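Whiteboard transcription, Tuesday session. T.W. wrote the structure tokens on the left side:
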């Protein structure tokens, strides 16, 4: 995980990402990832994983998105398939921008590797913010 806009917008990989292997991700790995996000100050997560990638978290007591919420994060799930060209459609980026505007900051955006879908989402958010003041975090 790393900051794109310090204290406001971060990007990263999905919990347990180690390459293209589609292995089940144990709960302790997800918990460690969430601890890292919390230490960074993240309050919200925009998850771009599609159903085929969410199934990698079947070891959790609930689905990944609900697990994020149970652990205290505000979440927007905007499913987008991996390895598509372009990585996100116009409706995806519109939904990402709407989610970003309503979620408490700092917001972490992730797909699987944190490259194609995440990069496009980050590009869209920062482009929109370029013409606006950066939003303050609610207290």
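and on the right, the sequence the group agreed on:
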């Amino acid at each position: 995980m790393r900051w794109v806009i310090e204290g406001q917008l971060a990007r990263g990989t999905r919990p347990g990402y180690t390459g293209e292997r589609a292995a089940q991700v144990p709960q302790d790995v997800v918990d460690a990832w969430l601890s890292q996000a919390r230490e960074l100050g993240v309050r919200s997560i925009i998850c771009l994983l599609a159903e085929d990638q969410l199934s990698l978290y079947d070891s959790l007591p609930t689905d990944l998105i609900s697990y994020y919420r149970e652990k205290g994060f505000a979440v927007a799930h905007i499913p987008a398939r991996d390895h598509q060209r372009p990585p996100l459609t116009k409706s995806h980026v519109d939904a990402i921008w709407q989610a970003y505007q309503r979620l408490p900051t700092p917001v972490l955006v992730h797909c699987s590797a944190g490259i194609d879908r995440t990069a496009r989402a980050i590009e869209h958010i920062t482009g929109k913010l370029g013409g606006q003041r950066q939003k303050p975090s609610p207290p």
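Someone added at the bottom: The longest helix spans residues 116-130.
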